Amino acid sequence: MTHERATVTDDRSRADVLQRLARLTDPDIDDLTRTLDARVALDQLASPALLVDLDGTVLDANEQVLGLGVERDALRGRALWAPTLWDSDDPTLTLAPLIEAGAEGRAGQRTIDIGGAAPRPGRVSLTPVLDDGRAVAVLLVELRGLTDSRETDELIAATTQALAAAEDIFRAVAENTSDLVCLHDPTGTFTYVSPSVRRLLDVDPASLSGTHPVDLAHAGTRDALVQAIQDAGRRGSEPTRFRHRLRHRNGSFRWFETAITPILAPDGSVRQLQSSNRDITEQRETEQSLIKQAFHDELTGLPNKALLIDRMSHALAVSARTSQPIGVLFIDLDGFKTINDTLGHQVGDTALLKVSERLTAIVRPGDTLARIGGDKFVMLCASTDGARGATAVARRILDAFAQPFVLEGREIQIGASIGIATSIGAEDPTQIIENADTAMHEAKHEGRGRFAIHDEVDQSLALERIDTEEALRRAVHNNELRLHYQPELDLESGRIVGFEALVRWQRPDGRLVPPGEFIPLAEETGIIVEIGRWVIAEACRQASLWRVHRTPEQEPVRIWVNLSARQLGDLDLVPYVERTVEAAGISTDEICLEITESALMDDAQAATEQLDELRRIGISLGIDDFGTGWSQFAYLQRLPLDVLKIDRSFVSGLVPDHAAATIVAAIIDLAHALGLIVIAEGVESEDQLAVLRELDCDQALGFLFSEPREPAAFEAALTAN
Ligand code: C2E
Ligand code: MG
Ligand code: MG
Fold this sequence. Notes:
- This protein has about 725 residues and is of the alpha+beta class.
- It has 27 helices and 26 strands.
- Helix 17 packs across helix 18 (about 525-545) and helix 18 (about 525-545) runs parallel beside helix 20.
């Protein structure tokens, strides 16, 4: 054997040697193999080496001992401290502590004078051969001759380094690294935790021994940890890497980047796991803030263009499913450059911050406000029906800008020009933004402080709607609303027992607009509350006028007024009804209110409270269009109702023995069982009337008796009543 082969400082060969030696403890290996294996292992080392057991008996030596002038066979079976090798008075003093430490699993070195043919100062290094972390019956002892003291120091340093890097690499690394280094049994339970855990998690390493890392895991990364431990057991010698969080003693969590490496037994099974955990909390914070920086505007903290486009893509995907277009508002400040030029950039920045605050207050949940540069903001309205909703938002923005901004104690008016575009005809986010930008320039051109809508189709639709909305707002003041009345007949007596008041809009151009064309817009914009009040007042006035047509003993005809959901949300509704009835000089049993099922379901709780109040002041209540809403029967019992109106759609299908008749029969029975009066809507034929009579329906209204008409049309009929 020559000295050219692998040297001790070669980590890999040393690790190899140790592994081979550890294998020698396997009880299944016969003595001959054991001896040969030990020899082969020892011979790999460049320096003279001995294998001793825990008592210090030399089991074998390598060829290199010849260099010290000793036959290796002469050493076998002798005690390590036998005088043959040493030029020392009592080698036991030096060597016995080394063996003891080795037996406890610790490596060590000592200087000692080596004897033999050429006595000289030398150094002994001992490495325990570990199995499962414990020293087994063999220890590796290497001898080095040291010539002069300089060489000695170098050699000591080299040997120390070699040792740290090699056999005790784990412990050396574990004890000194800033990372958290641990050993685990194959289930993950800690068997060793490096002292760095004190600094990293503020816990005592000894206290963790026998516990499982899952006890320290953050709920959000616990599964990742459990999975990684399982994977590590399956992946051979490949480390499993993952990121997770562990609890610090102060209750906070630190992020770790962890690699778990299995340590395999000779048979390939996992003997234990070794984990290296690097604290990456700060790194992650930096990463997070970089991500935030990448997607947010530094000054205002609002999303930037990149994030806006991302959100728009999502919104477009949703819009494709719901076929509701998205709306985008491009907002550009008017005269911002002047603020910057005259008051300085710092004031300009403050202005932008204040503008972004005001705009943020307008953004609805689910919508996005972004700053895409300078004084340019973009608002994405995902939850609207395109230009319509966006127009309402634009109005609110302009309203918000009507108030001056206070900058450096001065009130400064900042205006905004807004361009609106929708996804109709433009599928790509960038294109929509461009369209909105074009529209914004149009708004600027038209005189600033206003909005413009990009697409011409959109524009005409939106403008038409805006015109209608404005006209509708004026309709009440301009006295353009009319009430028509449709009589309700008692099916037994054939007399008119009531009227339903139905609103119409008499436009200045002479057109009489039916409620279906403006009630939805009125409900959406809230104008319905005002219209509804007018209807109630007008119906009361009519009731008082009709009083002259009956004798004092006669039951009053009742006027039914339709109430929409929005009105139920008006907290002044009940006092208003009370005041109006009183002002008209009628009593509360002459006016009744009807409301649809779906309106009741909007906010059932609030509805119930309002209805209870109305009932308390003596107003009769009816449920309208029954059967078209949710048809949940449970609420019929809970609500303070007097009347149930069967929807026209059931009545129109009425012929004897038909399914519709069965349904109507069931509804009538149900209503009667609950003590409600049943009114059938939309009776158009004698046949329908006959079936309703047969089914014991109480009252009916429909074109068969009369269409809704102006009140004067019923004067004669009322007198005859
Ligand atoms: P509604 O309350 O169910 O009113 C009944 C509607 O059916 C009326 O339509 C009436 O003209 C129509 N109708 C009555 N009998 C027949 C018939 O035999 N055949 C057919 N085909 N139709 C018949 P109108 O006046 O166009 O009202 C439509 C809806 O507008 C009303 O439905 C009601 O929901 C709403 N509405 C009307 N006036 C008001 C109001 O003052 N306030 C509120 N909130 N809604 C109102
Ligand atoms: Mg009605
Ligand atoms: Mg109805």
